[in-house]
Predict the structure.
Amino acid sequence: MDIEKFADMINECKNIVFFGGAGVSTESGVKDYRSKDGLYNTVKDYGVPPETILSIDFFEEHPDIFYDFYRTYFTSDVEPNKAHKALAELEKMGKLKAVITQNIDGLHQKAGSKNVIELHGTTKKFYCHSCNKNLEFEGVMDEIKSERVPKCKYCGGLAKPKVVLYGEMLYDGVAELAIEYIANADMLIVGGTSLAVQPAASFVRYFRGKYIVIINKTATDFDNNADLVFRESIGTVFEKVMRNL
């Protein structure tokens, strides 16, 4: 049975890395982009697609619309699901050495994971787009929730979430760190991602270890390289495998 094989692989390995995407968080109620309930199919009031709103050019030119969108889709309280919690537990067991995520919601940390590499940044931090000073999170969020464009208290510049918007490069050192963990892992678990978003998806090709396990509801270009492929809910898979450890 595949779950038992998965558990055996985890028991055998000592340096496991998890690489995850939007599908990890959708089970917590976070919207992804492409599914029938995703942002592309639910955002109809702005006249432009989400990836335009979430671009650096749009942020600079229309911060009022950007933050209206941000307030609607990125400020709701969501909780970690079974997958987040299982990964945190695997880290406590000494098996999982890093979570590499394309998500920006902070749910891995909320579940208890310590070593989380956030490829696209996080909605849990803000800084000034002009002077680059870090800004107090709660103060900025109060402004956003009050339907105001948040400004820097030091220079008056635009406050910006520490998120990699379309048109921006990944933050310095993040890609290199992710690749280093993947290259040194003896097991790579890929979950909740179709491996279609570049450059992050290309990082998987640096893996040289024993086992690759893919957990995703749709096919990925890397399925043929995997030792196990699961097409069901990532939370369900992790719940089952944790019972077998």
User: Anything to note?
Assistant: The chain has a mean pLDDT of 92.
